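Notebook entry, structure prediction.
Reason for the run: the old model in the group folder had no record of what sequence produced it. Starting over properly, with the input documented here first.
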Amino acid sequence: MSLKRLLLVLPAAAIAFSLAACSAPAARPSVDDVSAGIQKAAKSTSSSEVFTDKVSDCVAKELVDSKISDSALNTIAEGKEPKGADDQKLITKVLDDAAKTCLPAK
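New structure, fully documented this time:
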């Protein structure tokens, strides 16, 4: 499993998403919620076989434990792509690190 494929899953699932500007701030989502969003996004791409429950849970834990904003994590939990440039940079870094930890070696 390549890191490139992992990094492409979340953006590929959310091309048509636009975040509502007036939404109330939401609490930080749980690992289970983020994992479900990852799997939802993966199902809309050809990466669903990569994101087993174990891999999705591992990646979600890394994302939730990071400094990624609650808003961005809630967007991921919905199976969508966060739009902010700062969030994107941090998400890419966290996913890069998570790929080393969470993906089974081939």
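Summary: Residues 10-22 have pLDDT under 50 and may be disordered.
The old model has been moved to the deprecated folder.
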